[in-house]
Structure formats: C-alpha cells, structure tokens
Specification:
374 residues; alpha/beta; five-stranded parallel β-sheet; two-stranded antiparallel sheet; 11 strands
Length: 374
C-alpha cells in the first residue's frame, strides 16, 4: 500500500513539475526572455529560427544545404535569413553549371558561410561586388573541414570554369572537423567523412558504421532519437533546456578561451596526427587544382588573437611550419589574416553573442585580401 502511494505521489510531483516548467517556458518564450524563443512546430522537423532547417547531411561531404531553400536564424545579437541556390550553396543567384564565364571558387566553413550575417554582407558577396566576378561559394557550417573541402571541390571542379581558388582555413576547428579520434566520443551518428591513417604518410576517408544520410540536419526519428525530437519540436520547455545546454557559449567572455594557447586549440593546436591528416587532404585539394591560381588563407579566432597579442608565438609550431612548406611546394599564395589584425579593435570583428565574424569582420577580411593582392 505504501509503495502504491509513493508511486502516486511521484507521478503527481513529476506531472506538476512538467506542467509548471512548460507554463514557465511558455511565458519566457512569449516575451522573448530567453536566448532561444522558438515556437513549437508540432512536427518531426526542425523549427524555423534555429538556422538548421535548411541544412542537410546526405551528400558525400556530409554537411550542406537544401537546394532553393530559405531559413531564418534568430539569436541574441542577430536575426538573419539564409537562402540557398540551385546547388545548395549560400547565394542569392543560381550557378550555371558548365558556365564559360570566369568565376572564383571559395572553400570554407561557417565563418565564410556567414553565420549570423545577411548574405549581402558576407565575404563571398563582397568579393563578387568588388570584382564583378561570380563567386562559387562552396562553404558550409556544420563541422566542415579539409576532407570536405577536397570532396566538394572534386565533385564540382569540372562543372565550373574557375581560374582562382580561395581556401579559408580556420585552425580553431579545421584540425578536428574530420578527426575521428575527436568525434568518436562525441557523436558517431553524424554522416561525415573522417580521415584515418593507413601508413606513416597516407590517410584514407571513412564514414562511421552507424552514420546515415539524412535530408534534415541531425534529425533522428528512430526509437532512440524520437524522444529528443518530440521535446525539441512539441514543447516550449526545450527553450529552457537549450539555455542550460548552451549557457557557457552565451557569454562573450567565454570566447576568449576559444583558440587560446592554454587550450591546445586554434593557432596553438599541437596534436600531430590531426594536423597531418588535415594537411594531407589540403595537399590533395591543391594537387587537384594544379592548373589554378590558389590562395590559402588562415583565419584566427578571438582567442588566437588574444594569445598572439600576449606574445605567444605560433609561427614555430608544427602545423604552421608544415603549412608554409606545403604552400612553397605548390607555389600557392598564402595569407595569414593574423598579420592584418587591428590589435586595438579586433573585438569589433566578431558577433557579440557568437564567435563568427560580424559585418565588420567580413569587411575586414575583404580589405585584408585586397591589401595583400591588390
């Protein structure tokens, strides 16, 4: 009898807590008092406003975008709309396959894609506006690294008549984006290409056994993934849960540790196998474009900049020496954006609530490139 009463009390307590949390979350969401204020879609798809419903993971390079799609992304310090074109690239113009017009091809991750910034203020759009030449923007967020740069370029390199290839390398995460040793304890279900070492000098590409191609980014409606999807899409409480999950990223002061020399990341990353694997696929990319004019651009994160200002030298580290040997071997233009930092105003390059470039950051990158290659 006592056990039955205890069960009833527990059920009442849990039900009261859940109902109270949902009501409390509804009020906070209605008055936009949380970093995330998403309205439930009551469907098994991502809600608009998170900037992920336009993303896929079904192509061989994993992270990409749905074709001819748009999505809104609202956060503390920005409210933007993402638009994709006929091949799924972030651009407001369709790309004519097999076009005879000269183009510039751009490869990069979320920084170049322009998370949190409207397209007309992103670097690919600014380059197109300044040069009058079509840019093929093959950049994407979603942990997009050197293996994906190689794969997506290999897929499209015969489709476009481009003379110039610009590769934007973000040391903060490009060394780990395709490193299975990093991701195997984080998420094994993502459909992403990883590199694996096959001998002292070569790497191969593999996909995890339980990874599956998905039309919608990260949506898992299997029996194990369904509860999480229901909470995210059918409740207001998910906004509160997201706040607690991502709270450490919401404070701008935390970004100073991203890329710091104390965190073994970014410009101060020193894991040799991850560096070797990443640079191996950069070299494959360069070999594939031997007849093009190639420019490699390294992009510092805010923690990298702070560490550099504090006189921590990264130019003698293994990755930087290896990068320099690589660009010399293939006669590639090399631009390290760290050399163009305004040490007094670098904070003005980044979104206050996010680590990506803001409009000023994209403009600064444009001016730095043209200052180097006027």
């Amino acid at each position: 009898m006592f056990i039955k009463k205890l069960i009833v009390i527990c059920i009442i307590f849990v039900s009261t807590f859940v109902i109270s949390l949902e009501f409390f979350s509804f009020i906070l969401t209605k008055y936009n008092l949380l970093p995330f204020n998403q309205i439930p879609t009551y469907s098994l798809t991502y809600p608009k406003g998170l900037g992920v419903s336009w993303r896929t993971e079904k192509d061989q390079w994993g992270a990409w975008h749905k074709k001819n799609y748009f999505d809104n992304h609202k956060y503390n310090c920005f409210d933007v709309t993402y638009v994709s074109n006929n091949i799924g690239a972030r651009d407001n113009e369709d790309y004519k396959l097999n076009s005879k017009d000269k183009t510039i091809m751009l490869l990069g991750d979320s920084m170049l894609e322009g998370v949190g910034v409207n397209y007309e203020n992103t670097l690919p759009s600014l380059i197109k506006e300044k040069t009058g030449i079509q840019t093929i923007n093959l950049s994407a967020a979603g942990d997009f690294g050197p293996v994906q740069y190689y794969l997506i370029n290999d897929y499209y390199k015969e489709e476009f008549n481009y003379d110039d290839l610009y590769v934007f390398f973000l040391p903060y995460n490009d060394f780990t984006d395709n490193d299975w040793n990093f991701w195997k304890d984080v998420d094994t279900k993502r459909y992403r290409p990883y590199f694996k070492k096959i001998n002292d000098s070569e790497f191969d590409i593999f996909y995890p056994d339980n990874a599956k191609r998905r039309q919608s980014f990260g949506i898992d409606i299997s029996l194990t993934g369904l509860p999480k999807t229901i909470i995210n899409n059918f409740t207001y409480s998910s906004n509160v849960l997201r706040f607690f999950k991502y709270r450490k990223y919401l404070n701008e002061s935390n970004s100073v540790y991203l890329g710091s020399h104390n965190s073994d990341s970014g410009y101060y990353f020193q894991k040799k196998d991850a560096i070797d694997g990443s640079i191996y696929f950069l070299e494959k990319l360069f070999k594939n474009n031997a007849n093009k004019k190639i420019t490699l651009i390294t992009v510092p994160f805010i923690g990298d900049i702070i560490s550099h200002i504090d006189k921590n030298d990264y130019t003698k580290l293994y990755w930087y020496i290896k990068i320099n040997k690589l660009v010399e071997k293939y006669n590639i233009n090399f631009l390290d954006l760290m050399n163009y930092i305004d040490e007094k105003n670098y904070n003005g390059y980044f979104l206050e609530c996010d680590g990506h470039w803001n409009e000023n950051g994209h403009l600064w990158a444009l001016n730095s490139i043209f200052k180097k290659y006027e």
